[in-house]
């Protein structure tokens, strides 16, 4: 059952009416279903029943500490890409032994933060980074565990902006160079090379690229073991797609079967980094129609959410289903746009959608991943609150920003101050 359903003609998240939240919290807001998150996490994890595994939720998809605490309580670890994400994961009480740190540009400060937090491993992306991790660990009298992010040169067949496993992408170390780098890393005094990592892209709706990448990595692990590098963790990254519109997203079972086929009875711990797959369908952005406008060419609904709140439509031309919070049979064809001063500010374009009147509410669906985390303050718009619904109750897990939040970190140089 979906986390969002109509009850008495009003769209609910679990058992809470979105209209009620709008009345009490105001609009716009993001809303996440706690049971939707639990269900997706459990399904993903259970698909690998019987195998040693750690599912590390990709914090970049939705980093709210309320959401992270919920997933942490389900046994999730965290895939992080910055010091800020590490801070979030730790603050949410996630298990440090289940934190993996990816990213092509980790700074010295971030590396030291990871080492002092004793995370499971760094997914290193270059020899220079391996050297820096070794230096930092040396200065801290520690040993840092690493995996090397291998670029398997596999076509993920997804949007070019979110495809990462091809030779031409900036990510990882080419597979034919990785062995050399493992042998080098193993010779360093403050590094323990324990894992191998890849992440070939996001929103994959085909299974074969995952299978191909896993097979390439398993082959490399065997070769490395022969050369005295004992790999304990095989981290296959994230990327499993979801249904936004009419795409067929593979089931957890299909995904797990494909991986198991390649892994067979190898003895290592599997690591996964799903983001979108866990939270994407569990969230919605609720927004109010401020005005309606008809031009000779087109019909517009001008709503109070904008591209700064949800960047995906303007950035990737991404499709998000739009539902009327008060169910209606009436339809309109046109655009749902925000108040921002540029034409790329749309949430839905040239579509046939429910016709919500001025003052009514729309829910922009499947925005639980890469929604709030990609939000900005563009046009000095305070960022919207995040609400976590659990059964009959809702919790404000992030309050609406105020105007003072906008200017809080800023300052006027003394010589320009008027008071
Ligand atoms: N692991 C690594 C190393 C990653 O780079 C990513 C996503 C993930 C895991 C999680 O991928 P997922 O399971 O969510 O597909 N902003 C884009 C998505 C960018 C994904 C970047 N990396 C969007 O809105 O579609």
Number of strands: 21
Ligand kinds: ligand LLP
Radius of gyration over alpha carbons? 23 Å
Main sheet specs: 9 strands, mixed
Helix content: 25-40%
CATH architecture identity of the largest domain: Alpha-Beta Barrel
Structure annotation, total helices = 12
What does the overall shape look like? globular
**Stretches with pLDDT under 50, minimum 5 residues:** none
The CATH class assignment of the largest domain is Alpha Beta
Task: Output the structural class.
Answer: alpha/beta
Number of domains: 2
CATH fold description of the largest domain: TIM Barrel
CATH superfamily of the largest domain: Alanine racemase
What value does the average pLDDT take?
95
From the N-terminal CA to the C-terminal CA, the straight-line distance is: 58 Å
Strand fraction equals: 25-35%
Characterize the structure shown:
The protein has 12 helices and 21 strands. With 419 residues, it is an alpha/beta fold. It folds into 2 domains: 4-32 and 280-408, Lyase, Ornithine Decarboxylase, Chain A, domain 1 (Beta Barrel), CATH 2.40.37.10; 103-272, Alanine racemase (TIM Barrel), CATH 3.20.20. Strands 4, 14, 15, 16, 17, 18, 19, 20 and 21 form a 9-stranded mixed beta sheet that branches. The N and C termini lie far apart (58 Å). The structure holds ligand LLP. Residues 58, 60-61, 79, 102, 162, 199, 202-203, 237-239, 273-277, 312, 369-370 line the site of ligand LLP.
């Amino acid at each position: 059952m979906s986390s969002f359903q109509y009850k008495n003609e009003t769209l609910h998240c679990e058992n809470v009416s979105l209209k009620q939240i709008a009345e009490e919290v105001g609009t716009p807001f993001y809303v996440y279903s706690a049971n939707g998150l639990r269900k997706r996490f459990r399904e993903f994890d259970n698909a690998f029943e019987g195998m040693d595994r750690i599912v590390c939720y990709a914090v970049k998809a939705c980093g709210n500490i309320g959401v992270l605490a919920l997933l942490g309580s389900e046994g999730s670890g965290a895939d992080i890409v910055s010091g800020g994400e590490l801070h979030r994961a730790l603050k949410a009480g996630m298990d440090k032994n289940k934190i993996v740190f990816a990213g092509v540009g980790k700074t010295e400060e971030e590396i030291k933060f990871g080492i002092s937090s004793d995370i499971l491993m760094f997914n290193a992306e270059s020899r220079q980074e391996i050297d820096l991790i070794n230096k930092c660990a040396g200065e801290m009298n520690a040993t840092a565990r690493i995996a090397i992010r291998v670029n398997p040169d596999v076509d993920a067949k997804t949007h070019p902006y979110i495809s990462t496993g091809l030779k031409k992408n900036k990510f990882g170390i080419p597979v034919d160079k990785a062995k050399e780098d493992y042998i080098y890393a193993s010779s360093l005094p403050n590094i323990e090379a324990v894992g191998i990592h890849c992440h070939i892209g996001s929103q994959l709706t085909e299974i074969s690229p995952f299978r191909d990448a896993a097979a390439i990595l398993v082959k490399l692990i065997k070769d490395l073991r022969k050369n005295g590098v004992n790999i304990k963790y095989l981290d296959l990254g994230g990327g499993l797609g979801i249904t936004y519109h009419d795409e067929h997203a593979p089931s957890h079972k299909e995904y797990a079967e494909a991986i198991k086929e390649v892994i067979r009875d190898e003895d290592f711990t599997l690591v996964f980094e799903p983001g979108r797959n866990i939270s994407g369908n569990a969230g919605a952005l609720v927004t109010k129609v401020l005005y309606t406008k008809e031009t000779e060419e087109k019909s517009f609904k001008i709503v109070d959410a904008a591209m700064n709140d949800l960047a995906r439509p303007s950035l990737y031309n991404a499709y998000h289903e739009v539902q009327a919070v008060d169910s209606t049979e009436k339809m309109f064809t046109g655009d749902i746009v925000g108040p921002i001063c540029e034409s790329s500010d749309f949430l839905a374009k040239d579509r046939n959608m429910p016709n919500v009147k001025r003052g009514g509410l729309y829910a922009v669906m499947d925005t639980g991943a890469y929604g709030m985390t990609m939000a900005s303050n563009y046009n000095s718009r305070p960022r919207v609150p995040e609400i976590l619904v659990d059964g009959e109750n809702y919790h404000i897990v992030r309050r609406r920003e105020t105007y003072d939040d906008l200017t809080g970190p800023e300052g006027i140089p003394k010589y320009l101050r008027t008071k």
